[in-house]
Specification:
Length: about 200
C-alpha cells in the first residue's frame, strides 16, 4: 500500500489515503502526491498540514482546519481563510444579525412595576386578549403567571398598564433596530460595520 495526500495549489493538505499503486487513479483536476508516510494526526489536528513540493516534506502550519470567523472560505491558491463578501453583502449579513437580535429581545421578557413578564408570541397574544377583556369589564381581575413562575392577581386597570408596557417594549426594540439599520446603511467600510452591535446600542 502506498500513502497519498491531496493538496491544494498552496500546498495545504485536505485529504489522504493509503491504496495500492494500481488503484491510484486520481481525477486530473486534483493534486495528489505520493509520500513516505502520512502524519498520524493529519485528519484529526485542529491545524492544517502543508506539503513542501521542493523539499518533499510535510509540516504542521498555524492555519486552522475550520474558520474562526463566520462567512470565511478557504482560498486554496493564497493558502488563507478569506471573506469573499463585498461591502453590500456584509451590510446585508449585519442587518440579518441585528434582526435576529431584535427578535430575541422582543420575544424575551419585559418588566412592569418590578414584575417581569414573558413576551414570547403566545404570551403576547394572551396578554392582548386579557387587555381586551379588561376594557370590556373594568371590574374583573386577572391571575397571571410571571416569568419566574410565580402568580400574581392584577386588576383590569393594572393589566391594561401591563399591556401598554408590552407595547412600549416591542416598539423600543423596533426603534432600536431602525436606528441600527441606518448605521449599517451609512457604514463606508468593514470596520464601521463590525463596530455595530445590538448590545452596545
Amino acid at each position: 500500500m502506498n500513502a497519498y495526500i491531496r493538496v491544494d495549489e498552496s500546498g495545504h493538505i485536505n485529504s489522504c489515503m493509503e491504496i495500492s499503486e494500481e488503484d491510484a487513479n486520481f481525477p486530473e483536476e486534483e493534486i495528489w502526491v505520493q509520500v513516505a508516510e502520512i502524519p498520524f494526526d493529519l485528519m484529526s489536528s485542529d491545524y492544517m498540514y502543508r506539503y513542501d513540493h521542493d523539499m518533499g516534506s510535510i509540516s504542521l502550519t498555524d492555519k486552522l482546519i475550520l474558520p474562526v470567523m463566520p462567512y470565511t472560505v478557504w482560498d486554496g491558491v493564497a493558502g488563507e481563510w478569506t471573506d469573499p463578501r463585498d461591502l453590500e453583502d456584509k451590510k446585508d449579513d449585519k442587518w440579518a444579525e441585528m434582526k435576529k437580535a431584535r427578535d430575541a429581545e422582543e420575544f424575551s421578557t419585559f418588566t412592569w412595576n418590578s414584575y417581569t413578564f414573558q413576551c414570547d408570541e403566545v404570551s403576547q397574544q394572551r396578554l392582548t386578549g386579557a387587555v381586551l377583556r379588561a376594557q370590556i369589564d373594568p371590574q374583573q381581575t386577572v391571575d397571571w403567571t410571571l416569568s419566574d413562575n410565580t402568580s400574581r392577581t392584577f386588576t383590569a386597570t393594572e393589566i391594561k398598564q401591563v399591556g401598554l408596557s408590552l407595547a412600549a417594549h416591542v416598539d423600543g426594540c423596533h426603534v432600536k433596530a431602525r436606528q441600527l439599520r441606518e448605521q449599517i446603511v451609512n457604514a463606508t467600510n468593514e470596520t464601521e460595520i463590525n463596530a455595530i452591535t445590538w448590545e452596545d446600542n
